[in-house]
């Protein structure tokens, strides 16, 4: 299964600690990956590192682990291909420009018979994921020739996401460098780190960090991941069909079913296996 | 002054040798740079490395120098900022998608009062260069809802380039991953390496390569650069206002003034200084 990682902060922050653990994963059952990608917003600019080599051995992942790029919004994706060849054009995250902003998108799931018509944005590769991004941006663009206010944008994206999820499993993270939009079909967790800061210990490696040493009192950082990255902090689980938007390190918009359902890790994995995620 | 580097081949080739010398440059008079970028097409995919640190010290440039990414089309740009802050959103090359293909563009020059209206593509940063790319793709898209044949595309791009160059100095390299389009206002050189292969010695470093050791008899590689990268090969100079298109390592389309003018390095530099290139 693929895994997603996102970060949204109120001050530019490096993601090295989280990526250290995340990049060691490739699936939930083994430690091999079939390519990975990570994109960093820096001001209005964006830096996207992609590699079709396993992240544990990739020189690109090694660079990211050692080069403290500070960013307010980051999206990463590691791939455990269940079928097909790993090619660069199918490697997440995918990037496009809308309203003079870069948009970055990564998906974990599988959309069945999702073949919409495109107007402004055409997929370059052949994944359902890139089609989802193109469809989403196409629709936004048709609705809003100019960028709308934040609240309107959140509602509009929520509505499009609700359309897309009718086609199948749609765990996703999307960002325009300002807000970070998430949708959960099966598994997605988040944590908000802010004062008082404590220690955190990675699940995937024997590494502990004391956030008191690397933060200032006003820092607030939200980290979103398919499964918790640390084992001594309280990660919050997103419900099935929950849509949540982060800005400056906190949730600013949320659409959750009235009777939320939370899957166990095993249930989430079982669904991923049954739909044969081709992310 | 900024410098451009491009490569177009008939077989995926790594650019490590050329980039080794190129990344040591930052201007013609000193060896400091203010950021750099390099984009590699791999199949339909693209990998774009950007850094706003000097390429001689950048960990990203170090990665590119040591990681043999094989590509049929590469565009790189190093920046010697004459004014203003170096921000990531203003770092070349710039990338967009058109007709389901990625397009990559780098520019060396200065366009005066070039502020067109945009329809499909909006600049993210504030350079004349990114505006030129957006204008160019906007026009192509309006003329051709679907991708035209190669010859038609070459003529269409030539016509748009001839419009843009009316606004000032416009040395540029553009690629859709298939062909590599170039335009010269002042300085641009190229070399086609093919059988029989020989040795090449970098201008900027004491490094020599024997291409016989790293090629097969059918390989053909065109390298394009602001100034020659090696000092024992015959680089061809492009004329002022020459438009040339490379495909599979050779020129397939060319539009050259009837009385071509070739600038010396000193004349090219003097023009760059006088227009205050803000690339």
UniProtKB/TrEMBL annotation, chains A, B:
Cell cycle in keyword set: no
Pfam families per the UniProt record, alphabetical: GATase_4
Gene3D superfamilies: Glutamine Phosphoribosylpyrophosphate, subunit 1, domain 1
Residues annotated as signal peptide: none
Residue ranges of domain Glutamine amidotransferase type-2 in the record: 2-279
Keyword list, A-Z: Glutamine amidotransferase
Protein name in UniProt: Glutamine amidotransferase type-2 domain-containing protein
Species this chain originates from: Simonsiella muelleri ATCC 29453
């Amino acid at each position: 299964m693929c895994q997603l990682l996102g970060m949204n902060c109120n001050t530019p922050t490096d993601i090295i600690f989280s990526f250290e653990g995340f990049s060691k994963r490739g699936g939930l059952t083994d430690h091999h990956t079939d390519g990975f990608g990570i994109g960093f917003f820096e001001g209005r600019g964006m830096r996207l590192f992609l590699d079709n080599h396993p992240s544990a051995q990739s020189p690109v992942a090694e660079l990211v682990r050692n080069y403290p790029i500070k960013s307010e919004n980051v999206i990463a994706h590691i791939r455990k291909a269940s079928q097909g060849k790993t090619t660069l054009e199918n490697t997440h995250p995918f990037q496009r420009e809308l309203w003079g902003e870069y948009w970055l998108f990564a998906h974990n799931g599988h959309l069945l018979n999702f073949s919409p018509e495109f107007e402004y944005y055409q997929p370059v590769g052949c994944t359902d994921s890139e089609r989802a991004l193109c469809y989403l941006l196409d629709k936004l663009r048709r609705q809003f020739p100019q960028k709308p206010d934040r609240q309107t944008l959140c509602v509009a994206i929520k509505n499009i996401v609700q359309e897309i999820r009718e086609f199948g499993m749609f765990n996703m993270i999307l960002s325009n460098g300002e807000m970070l939009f998430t949708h959960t079909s099966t598994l997605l967790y988040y944590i908000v780190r802010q004062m008082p800061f404590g220690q955190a210990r990675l699940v995937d490696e024997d590494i502990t960090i004391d956030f008191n040493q690397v933060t200032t009192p006003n820092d607030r950082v939200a980290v979103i991941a398919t499964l918790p990255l640390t084992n001594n902090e309280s990660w919050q689980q997103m419900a099935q069909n929950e849509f949540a938007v982060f800005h400056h390190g906190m949730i600013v918009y949320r659409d959750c079913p009235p009777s939320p359902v939370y899957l166990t890790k095993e249930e989430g994995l079982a669904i991923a296996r049954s739909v044969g995620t081709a992310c």
